[in-house]
Amino acid sequence: MEYMQIRQNFERHGFGTQLFSTKEEACCYLTDILQNQSIGFGGSETLREIGLFEALQQKNAVIWHNKVPGMAVRKLANCANTYITSANAITETGEIVNIDGTGNRVAMTAFGPQSCYYIIGRNKITTDISAAYSRCKNIAAPLNARRLGVKTPCAVKGDKCYNCNSPERICRIISVIERAPLGMKCEIIFVDQDLGF
Ligand code: SF4
């Protein structure tokens, strides 16, 4: 599906949208519009690849547990006015699907900040909810498990979800955002490159 149609589908669901050719353009866009803000980041390989933390922290207070690990930092990030994350998958029809281990990202994308920005590489786009769920479980989660170094079968084999019952299982909360939550400004920033998992 063309970006124009995907963007229209998200806009019909209450999201603002932007489209950039490169991650550098997306980074410039955010550094232009966000200044003097408290900004929380969700755990994200996409944000790391963009170098967004380093860019935004020059004029904002940015809180990210990927930089300072721990539950206290996650809780602090969940008090920010602005939240930035990616997603494990989105659909061409205008929905966002995420799987969390601690639930910090699922919580903030549902309730809390005044504004929420999603940075979405083209590799995160799927046709529908079923395909999005499969991407989350069989692509995003195994690669994230391997990145985090947890002892789950998907991390060891790196190929698919085994629906494990490991104490270190990272798939514990799944959210589907069908419409932008009431009272929260949400924007999808599409980048026409592969980004993150
Ligand atoms: S449920 Fe277990 S095996 Fe499946 S992706 Fe999550 S952590 Fe990996």
Q: Which key phrases capture this entry?
A:
binds iron/sulfur cluster; 6-stranded parallel sheet; 8 helices; alpha/beta; 4-stranded mixed sheet; globular; 197 residues; 10 strands
Approximate strand percentage? 15-25%
Averaged pLDDT: 96
Q: Write down the Rg.
A: 16 Å
**What ions, cofactors and ligands are bound?**
iron/sulfur cluster
Coarse morphology: globular
The residue ranges in which pLDDT falls below 50 over 5 or more consecutive positions are none
N to C succession of SSEs: HEHEHHEHEEEHEEHHEE
What is the SS-derived class? alpha/beta
State the end-to-end distance: 21 Å
Described by its quaternary structure, the protein is single chain
Q: How many beta-strand runs?
A: 10
Portion in helices: 25-40%
Note the total helix count: 8
Main sheet properties: 6 strands, parallel
Reading side by side through the largest sheet, how are the strands ordered?
1-10-7-4-2-3
Q: How would you describe this protein?
A:
This protein is α/β, with parallel strands linked by helices and 197 residues long. It is built from 8 helices and 10 strands. The chain has helices at residues 3-12, 23-33, 45-50, 52-56, 71-77, 104-110, 129-148, 153-157, and strands at 16-20, 38-41, 61-63, 82-85, 89-91, 96-100, 115-121, 125-126, 173-177, 185-191. The strands form 2 sheets. A 6-stranded parallel β-sheet has the order 1-10-7-4-2-3. A 4-stranded mixed β-sheet has the order 8-5-6-9, with helices on both faces. Strand 5 (89-91) and strand 6 (96-100) form a beta hairpin. It starts with a helix and ends in a 6-residue tail after the last strand. The model has no long low-confidence stretch (mean pLDDT 96). Iron/sulfur cluster is lined by residues 137, 141-142, 145, 152-154, 161-164, 166, 169-171.
